Amino acid sequence: MSFKKSLLVLVTGVSLTSLGIAGCTTQQRDFEAEAQSPTLTGQTETTQVQTPTATPTTQPQERPGDVPYVPTPEAVVDAMLEVAKVGKDDVLYDLGSGDGRIVNTAAQKYGTRGVGIDINPERIQEANANAQKAGVTDRVQFIQQDLFNTDFSEATVVTLYLLPDINLKLRPKLLRELKPGTRIVSHAFDMGDWKPQQTLTVDGRQVYYWVVPEEVPANLK
Ligand SMILES: C[S@@+](CC[C@H](N)C(=O)[O-])C[C@H]1O[C@@H](n2cnc3c(N)ncnc32)[C@H](O)[C@@H]1O
Fold first, then answer.
1. Phi, psi at 160, each rounded to 5°
2. What's the structural domain count of the chain?
3. Does the record's keyword annotation contain Signal (predicted)?
């Protein structure tokens, strides 16, 4: 092959290869763009592409709550955890957990495993965000659920900030399902005929403390 012919073959080969690469890259770019497009993914234009995260999901609220959201002041949270002597071997359930402060504080200060139950999805989202900030997501869980339909039998400590009639409605379930020796702490409201073992006043607020007995008196069931 003459030098001229060899040069022609070389130039043509390089051009075709370049075109192939360019074509392939363009095609790939077009495909990626198409894959992201709303028509292919079935998303509307306002929907964000979902990336897998550890953030738990919530559902619409099943019914209105029995108690409005009012957070327990931090000093009272501390006193509730102290009176119950929570530790790293405890499993603490906060029934109506709000922004998760009782569960998250127990996990952060004492290494306690905690479960927060709240009927309101906004509270669950807040509680999870607060758990992230506190660095306790490995020890806590927030579940969107009606506390009257919750199995809390694994608890060794239960905390409450509800209302007097809700405490009374919950009392038979607490006494039926919790193990003897489980500690219960309530901010602000007592449980009628079930007399507390201790009552504290913290910054003008009442804190009540009970321990589930081996034998539940008939009048409390
Ligand atoms: C007074 S706040 C207490 C929040 C938190 N425990 C604290 O002490 O800071 C009561 C919480 O109970 C929740 N709640 C009300 N009724 C409920 C129900 N039936 N089941 C679960 N949560 C409920 C409310 O959404 C609210 O967050």
1. -140, 140
2. 2
3. yes
